[in-house]
Design brief:
The protein is α+β, with helices and mostly antiparallel strands. The chain has 3 helices and 8 strands; from the N terminus they run βαββββαβββα. The protein has an 8-stranded mixed beta sheet, covered by helices on one side. It is globular and about 40 Å long. 30% of the residues are buried.
Length: 165
């Protein structure tokens, strides 16, 4: 489906165990984990290999921060490409889904919005980052449509809900 989520994310306290167990349970293969930092938070990240939807694993280095695992591993978010984080964020906030964390102040074009009814978040990621994502995690992978592609004519239809569905 055009504009569907392109990844599902779990935050985990033990990346090696998550890769081993989810790999065995779902028959998926993960890329090698990579260390990264945003603001004051260090973390490791890995994605499944192959085609979307991807499974993302994030292992924070310490409790707290945007991926706190002090209460254990959990489903964290569904990720969507968007033509505009600002426009998408306004639609989500107007629908009662507040922004919970933004990577934008740290030079990372993404934002998480809380969806309380599912106990998790949705992530909007700027479509301009897609080529870098594919180069890093799926070289040669096919482009993925933004969530706005589900709107009639591929435009920014805000009349049908926060994610233009």
């Amino acid at each position: 489906m055009a504009g569907s989520f392109y990844h599902v994310c779990f935050v985990v306290p033990d990346m090696a165990a998550a890769i081993r167990d989810l790999g065995a349970a779902a028959g998926v293969e993960f890329s090698a984990p990579r260390a990264d930092r945003i603001g004051e938070w260090d973390f490791r990240i890995a994605f499944t290999r192959g085609t979307p939807p991807y499974i993302e694993l994030i292992e924070p280095a310490a409790p707290g921060g945007p991926w706190d695992v002090s209460e254990g591993a959990r489903f964290d978010h569904l990720g969507f490409w968007t033509r505009s984080i600002e426009d998408g964020g306004r639609r989500l906030a107007a629908a009662g889904l507040p922004e919970e964390f933004s990577g934008c102040p740290y030079g990372r074009p993404f934002a998480y919005h809380r969806v309380g009814s599912i106990g998790a978040r949705v992530e909007l990621v700027d479509l301009a980052r897609q080529s870098a994502f594919l180069a890093a995690w799926n070289p040669g992978g096919e482009p993925m449509p933004p969530v706005e592609a589900d709107a009639p004519g591929g435009g920014r239809d805000t009349s049908r809900g926060p994610l233009t569905r």
